[in-house]
Design brief:
- The complex is a heterodimer of chains A (391) and B (328).
- In chain A, strand 2 and strand 3 form a beta hairpin.
- Chain A has 391 residues and is mainly alpha-helical.
- Chain A has a single domain (71-390), classed as Cytochrome-c3 Hydrogenase, chain B (Orthogonal Bundle).
- The longest helix of chain A has 29 residues, at 116-144.
- In chain A, helix 5 (116-144) runs antiparallel to helix 6 (150-169) and helix 5 packs antiparallel against helix 15 (372-381).
- Chain A has 16 helices and eight strands.
- Chain A has helices at residues 17-24, 71-75, 84-90, 95-110, 116-144, 150-169, 189-214, 217-223, 231-236, 242-245, 253-256, 277-300, 355-360, 363-367, 372-381, 386-390, and strands at 31-35, 47-53, 56-63, 178-179, 182-183, 322-329, 334-341, 349-353.
- Chain B has one domain (73-324).
- Chain B starts with 7 loop residues before the first helix and ends with a helix.
- Chain B has 14 helices and no strands.
- Chain B is globular, with a radius of gyration of 20 Å.
- Chain B has helices at 8-42, 58-68, 79-90, 92-97, 114-122, 124-135, 139-170, 175-181, 190-193, 195-208, 220-223, 233-258, 269-288, 296-324.
- In chain B, helix 2 (58-68) packs across helix 12 and helix 3 (79-90) runs antiparallel to helix 6.
- Classes of the chains: A mainly alpha (391), B mainly alpha (328).
- Chains A and B meet through strand 1, helix 5, helix 6, helix 8 and helix 15 of A and helix 7, helix 11 and helix 14 of B.
Chain lengths: 391, 328
């Protein structure tokens, strides 16, 4: 590591390379504070260096790379189907959206047909997974805000969904159950029954959450007008997902460029105009309802047929030369996978576009001038998954 | 020197202090269990269940674990100040209890300045947190200490003002006189006359003891653990014990000032006292597991914009009526 020149202008300063670089521009009498990579509210291993004046943040800079696992390079070194296992680990909270993105990119490249039943199973499982992701976010976010109880309620619901998803996917968190041309297993009538029970149960749970938490005066005081992202700013940083929709832009990949069978469903895109943390909170809570509506319609319209294209390639396989791009709507925003094939049995290039990275880039501007507590509230409202940022 | 030559007062004080130490330690252990059990049930889980029947001995096991841990002083810390801080947090606590009348003739020290004694010793707590934060040589602890000081300054004023209203009404700073001034039934308690003062006192006392939703000096999700960050083993244990003991103190004082102290029908006084005290303690515990944490500026705004002016107005009204009706 020879980044620091011999005549080190930082000599005498504390910290590593990043902290020293950061400290070079520090104001007089300010406090350089290192938040993370082990901090309770950076959720994983995000590190943020803060320059503080008392409790106020003058400047901050995220430092990435603490959980960089070279997912893109790994994609270029293994058979196409093997990469599904990585997808479950890029975003462990909405693994099925990444599964779908990878399956979609390869199917588009090789022109593989997906049977209707498989499409519906994909929709149902992905939306269940999205609810799971939002529920976990809800609990963890309130934990950041000092309310320690809601996460236990969220996990009660989450547990049910994981039990349901366990059957068709074979795992509970890092799902990798999609395949080119379908999914790995069919859903049973028991699955349908349990999913319907969940749809019946969730509205009253959500009503309880809103009654106990959303309406709380302390919570509103902590979230309203904190971390306001206007439309222009959201677009400037390429923010997507609930962050963008919380700023009044009704952009949802499921509607804007429908993939799978999403064009067959009737669902509203939750949008809030305020752009503050409360708006993002509200958008995510409303999205749970949207997902429930989609699952209900998908269960009603579930066609008979194959859950897997019988002609789809299995195991090691060589797609045609070419390139493709496939985007899906993840719980955090737009997930995009660019894939280039040179006709060998491993991809030539895989590029992952993750929503958390672009959403995180909002943070330094948002946090400027806020209190430390607000910074925690803002960071939480962006719903970051750190492995997705580092990839 | 015979036993008779020792003044009675001194013997009484010594016995009271020993009894109070035992009371505080037993309560610390018990409240730890109650807190974890309440937290468990609020969160729809059983809470501690493995050690002993219904996890009754969990708190003892926790205490054993804390005692067994190594005490480590962080690099660059000031060892003397660093280890004085937990002692200073705990030291004034038994002294605060000695003036509290637990029952008829059941008090450690006969003084007509009980309130002053308690309030003055209560000030030590913030000094201890300040020392702990400063001596830890940790920026998070330092921020916690800064919060602790600002919070204590902001909340001690309305707390004093609300207590003063009761003192004015009763015409005494003697806790025993204040208790005697009230009757056994709720409508004879001071809270019936001074509901606003009780409300202000209760909010301020939660803030004074750094309990959620006002646990900003600790603020786990913001300041890792604030002033406690660097303390290991019993250093942390004593700070926690002091926190629980402070919770007891503020509940005791609230019971004496507003809830009729040991007055009550049928049952002997001490039972009534303990029942009222534990009711308040449980309320404080419930609040911790229910609400999100307030922000720092909101905390200060609440005190300076609402509680302090309200307490002042309340004091003025009390003085006016006390004069009007020839209160003492």
């Amino acid at each position: 590591m020879n980044f620091i020149p011999a005549a080190n202008p930082c000599s005498g300063l504390e910290g590593d390379f990043y902290a020293q670089r950061f400290a070079l521009e520090a104001h007089e009498d300010s406090l350089i504070l290192n938040m993370g990579p082990q901090h309770p509210s950076t959720h994983g291993v995000l590190r943020v260096i803060l320059e503080m004046d008392g409790e106020y943040i003058l400047r901050c800079e995220p430092v990435l790379g603490y959980i960089h696992r070279m997912h893109e390079a790994m994609g270029q070194n293994r058979a196409y189907v093997q990469y599904f296992a990585n997808m479950g680990r890029v975003d462990y909270l909405h693994a099925l959206a990444w599964n779908w993105a990878w399956a979609g990119a390869v199917e588009r490249l090789a022109g593989i047909e997906v049977p209707a039943r498989a499409q519906f199973i994909r929709v149902i499982c992905t939306e269940l997974n999205r609810i799971n992701s939002h529920l976990l976010w809800w609990g963890a976010y309130l934990l950041d805000l000092g309310a320690v109880t809601p996460i236990m309620y969220a996990f009660e619901d989450r547990e049910r969904i994981m039990d349901i998803l366990q059957e068709p996917t074979g795992s509970r968190l890092t799902y990798s159950s999609f395949r080119f041309g379908g999914v790995v297993a069919d859903i049973s009538s028991d699955f349908v029954r349990r999913a319907r029970a969940l749809i019946a149960r969730m509205p009253e749970r959500l009503a309880m959450y809103h009654e106990l938490v959303t309406g709380n005066a302390i919570l509103r005081g902590r979230l309203e007008d904190v971390g306001v992202v206007d439309q222009a700013m959201a677009r400037r940083y390429g923010a997507t997902g609930p962050v963008l929709r919380g700023s009044g832009v009704a952009y949802d990949v499921r509607r804007a460029e429908p993939y799978g069978v999403y064009d067959q469903f009737d669902f509203a895109i939750p949008v809030q105009d305020a752009g503050d943390s409360m708006a993002r909170y509200q958008v995510r809570m409303d999205e749970i309802e949207t997902s429930l509506a989609i699952i209900g319609q998908a269960l009603d319209g579930l066609p008979e047929g194959h859950f897997m294209n019988p002609d789809a390639p299995r195991g090691k396989w060589t797609p045609p030369v070419g390139e493709s791009y496939f985007a899906v709507e993840g719980a955090r925003g737009k997930i995009g996978i660019y894939l280039a094939s040179d006709g060998s049995d491993t991809p030539y290039r895989v590029k992952l576009r993750s929503p958390s990275l672009s959403n995180l880039s909002l943070f330094p501007e948002l946090a400027k001038g806020t209190l430390l507590s607000d910074a925690v509230a803002i960071l939480g409202s962006l719903d970051l998954v750190i492995p997705e940022i580092d990839r | 020197m015979t036993l008779e030559s020792i003044p009675d007062e001194l013997i009484r004080l010594a016995v009271a202090l020993v009894a109070l130490m035992a009371f505080i330690a037993a309560n610390g252990i018990m409240l730890l269990y109650v807190e974890r059990k309440v937290a468990g049930h609020v969160q729809r889980r059983p809470g501690p269940f493995e050690v002993g029947p219904h996890g009754l001995f969990q708190a003892l096991a926790d205490a054993g674990k804390l005692v067994g841990k190594q005490l480590s002083t962080p690099a660059g810390a000031d060892p003397l100040l660093f280890w004085i801080a937990p002692l200073m947090a705990f030291m004034p606590v038994p002294l605060m209890f000695i003036a509290v009348p637990f029952g008829q003739n059941l008090w450690g020290l006969e003084t007509n300045l009980g309130i002053v004694l308690i309030l003055s010793f209560a000030g030590f707590n913030v000094l201890a947190l300040c020392l702990a934060g400063w001596a830890s040589n940790n920026k998070w602890s330092l921020l916690g200490a800064a919060r602790a000081v600002a919070q204590a300054v902001a909340y001690e004023i309305p707390l004093l003002l609300s207590v003063l209203a009761v003192a004015l009404m009763t015409g005494s700073l003697d806790l025993r006189v204040i208790v005697a001034h009230q009757g056994g039934w709720p409508w004879q308690w001071n809270v019936a006359v001074q509901p606003l003062a009780f409300f202000i006192y209760f909010v301020c006392s939660v803030a004074e003891t750094n309990r959620a939703p006002f646990d900003l000096p600790e603020a786990e999700s913001e300041l890792t653990a604030g002033v406690h960050t660097e303390y290991s083993g019993m250093g942390n244990g004593i700070i926690f014990l002091a926190e629980y003991a402070n919770m007891l103190v503020v509940s005791c004082v609230a019971t004496v000032l507003f809830l009729g102290g040991f007055n009550g029908p049928i049952l002997p006084g001490p039972w009534w006292f303990l029942a009222k005290m534990y009711l308040l303690v449980t309320l404080i515990i419930f609040m911790r597991w229910t609400y999100p944490r307030v922000r720092f500026d909101q905390l200060l705004n609440l005190s300076w914009r609402w509680l302090t002016p309200l307490a002042l107005a309340n004091l003025l009204l009390t003085a006016f009526f006390a004069k009007l009706w020839g209160g003492a």
